Known about the structure:
Elements: E1 9-12, E2 15-18, H1 22-34, E3 39-42, H2 46-54, H3 56-64, E4 67-68, H4 73-84, H5 98-113, H6 128-142, E5 145-150, H7 155-166, E6 171-176, E7 187-191, H8 196-204, E8 212-215, H9 219-223, H10 232-236, H11 240-247, H12 252-267
Parallel strand pairs: 3-4, 3-8, 5-6, 5-7, 7-8
Antiparallel strand pairs: 1-2
Amino acid sequence: MHFTFYIMKISVLGVKINNDTKNTLLFLIKKLLAENQKIFIVTPYSEMLVKAQSDRGFRDVLNSATFALPDGIGVLWAAHFLKFSPPARGGDYEGVGVKRVLKLISSLFAVIFAPKKIRDPIPEKISGSDFVWDLARLAEERGLSVFLLGGFGDTSALAAQKLRSRFPNLKIAGTSNQITTDINADFLFVALGPVRQETWIAENLPKLPIKLAIGLGGTFDYLASKRPPAPQIWRKTGLEWLWRLLTQPWRLWRISKGVLGLIFYCLRPKV
């Protein structure tokens, strides 16, 4: 029996999300590596959940991953809200009553003022920008190599240097800002942007000599110091989205679309 049968997930708007702690996920990854099983990791956040509602192919890609990390406070909020305020069944909006709207408002306030209250059924947010350090540490400890694919210009090379600065014995198998399948490494970090990177990994991982692949979005930019990462306190309190908005105001439409879209789909009755 493969260990993968013990990987537990919950459905959040049809996307299967892991609801374990980071330490548990790292333990599971180590077990799968010991079994020589390929590992595909995705990091869904609000915008990706919204995209998955209208793009069934993308939703299938996310659900094909070995692990789906809850990357964003919005994912924790949606899981909590849907658990404790499940939508009514039917084709109309009879389920969107006064009590449900009040529950929505109180849970949204909890995101900022009482974030611990929404950590059920998902206990913690696990962002790709944090998890990349855990994977780099694991690779160094086990003598595994890492390849960084994506980013613009010298971003992937600078990101690799940043990882090496913390983990001097980390083996960097290579970097590339151009899409290529000429990759020979144990771990593959991919930053091609959401949807594109997950789809590319799903299509190519079976053909590559890779043990683990993860989509990391804009993480390379943070590693390469091309964008300022959110302070730790902002990340712990679930305000990383606000930091991105303040430091990248051009993302207002994307962020608002993700937030409002997530609320809309959580309120929508089941059909």
